[in-house]
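Before a computer can learn anything about folding, someone has to put a protein's shape into writing. The outcome of that step, for a single protein, is printed below:
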Amino acid sequence: MSSLPQDAEVLRRKIEAAAQSFAGSPEHPGEENFLFALEDTATGKLVGTTGIVAHVGLTRPFYSYKLSTITQASAGLSVYSLQHVLHMVNDYTNATEVGSLFLHPDYRRDGIGKMLARSRYLMMAEFPQHFSDVVISEVRGVQDKDGNSPFYDNIARHFFKMGFQQADYIYATQGAQFIADLMPRYPIYVNLLPREAQTVIGVPFEASRPAMRLLQAEGFRYEGYVDLFDAGPTLQANCANIRTVRKSHKAKVTAIREIRSVPHMICNTRLHDFTIVAGGVESENGGVAIDADAAKALGVGKGDMVRYAE
């Protein structure tokens, strides 16, 4: 994964940045990086991860290609031409980005992956002041069986003079300055590209389709922006319109007891030890009752506030 490269030092920095972000003391305010860890509480095993970057592009440029349409006509020749063009842009500067979604294969069942993905939106609902109105997610683009990108190989490789995997690793570990240094800023006419590059623009990698469907179920849509390297689609949504954000509720805990309802996502309302669990919730006495295991994991008791979503 680009956002979680196999580099111990990079991962250490990401974990430290996440700890600082949850503590409310990020190195660069506004660029909080909230990294989540999914734990199987029955075994204590770490089984998944996901994350949120509060605002992209503030100190590290965030590049995309915008696919647009140009029309030209010659009345004298009775020729009408419609062309698709890629422009390198920074349109998503200041947007919130969700990503780093990974779940251990043994746990890809029972809606666990869906809960992991949706946990990010429950946090956005509780702490909207930390996030942008625009939320984006970059979906991995098409690669072949050897990990090569047909889009990259026909465009960026000519300027970077290195393979896709190496360029992706440099971007993940060192930032985007080399993109600004080496990539041309001129528009690229799609019909001048080889066919294998044209056909993958805005197309997700097969293994990324389930994650893309989860995004679409929450209200994310493709608006013609694609990744600079592999042309994977970037999906976007208005934060307030994300399904989990809209349908979440906040209430006071009025009882802690056995609950027989369908499990909900429940979170506490403290940033420094923000926690989300799967547990039972029932409306009661103007508030909610939750089960004892959920209360213990969240560190809440009667009279405390929680946010939840079915």
